[in-house]
Every structure is written in structure tokens, then in C-alpha cells.
Hints:
This protein has one domain (5-73, 116-201): CATH 1.10.630.10. The chain has 7 helices and 6 strands; from the N terminus they run ααααββββαααββ. By secondary structure, the protein is α+β, with helices and mostly antiparallel strands. A hairpin with a 5-residue loop joins β2 and β3. 35% of the residues lie in helices and 11% in strands.
Amino acid sequence: MIIAATDTTSTALTWFTWLVSKHPIVENKIIEELESKIPVSETKRRRLFNVDEVKNLVYLHGALYEALRLYPPVPFNHKEPLKPDMLPSGHPVHPKTKVLFSVYSMGRMKSIWGEDCYEFKPERWINERGEIKHEPSYKFLSFGSGPRKCLGKETSFIQIKAVASALIYNYRIHVMEETPIIPAVSVVLHTKHGLMTRISKRWE
């Protein structure tokens, strides 16, 4: 199964934008972190952030990973063994048997993420030292795991960080309540009715 990277990237940014718009405290923390990368001599104005400025942003990283956990662009996946195998549960799996698993559901399981698994909580990805907290790829499957792990993960995530930075720093995004935001049943987890917003400039 091949999924176009542009589809998954735009989907990830759509859900991230919606989640941040519903959590003003998170939005303010992202802006504060971005401002910390701007030279003191520079006046507040619209700007783009380069790779060096965004690649080590911890809180933005956490917010994006939370969006990917709750709304993975590819919501389900399947595997098929080449030879007889055994699942950790003890169930045998034979060749040509497809094992379908829901990445979307796994991101919302209390047994995996705790009692607050339904919360949008960027701090989940930050350790006590204020650094990015790494989770095993078999726990956080938005980029795949093992030999099938996404080869373009680092490049695509830097791209997402750069676009997300420009969106949040330069614009106020108000999501229109008239249109419900619900996932579409699809290979890629689009919003069923799009994301209708009203956008205004944050800086002149």
C-alpha cells in the first residue's frame, strides 16, 4: 500500500491546526517557544522559520506528535507473515493471513497511553529535563515500525514543523463551529467536511 506523502502531511497539519485552535494554552506556548528563536533585535512581524530554527523545538515537537497520536494520517495498517509465526498473545498466524490493526485505536488505549489518553497533551512527549521524550516505534506507529519504518520520517517532520511554525506564529486561526470536525472513513484520515476557518493576521 503506497500513500502519497503530500496527503499524509496535509492531513497531519489539518488535525494539528484544529487541535491547537481548541487549546489556546498550547497555542501560546508554541508562540513563546518560537519567539525564543527570534533574535532580540528583530521586531515582531510576519516571518518564516528556517530548518535550524525549528528542528530542535521541543514543545512544538510534542504538540505535533500528540496530533499524530490522536489522528494518525494512516489510521490502520496490516501485516502478513511470510512463514508461520506466533503473536505475543499466543495466537498462531499462518502465511497469507492478514493481521489488521488500528493505529487510530491504539493511540486512544488507556493500557498504552494511560488514563489521559484522550487528552491533547504535548507535555506527554517532554521528559523531566525538558527534552523530547522518545517512545518505542511499536507504541507510536504513525511513522511505521521496524524494517517498514517511514524512510522520509525526519525530512517530512521537519517540513511539517516549518509549515506549522509559519501558520501558528503568523496567523490566528478560528475554526467555524457550523461545520462538524469528524474523521472520514478512508485510507488517509481526512476531516470528513474539511476544516472551515476564519483566519486573521497576528502581525502586520
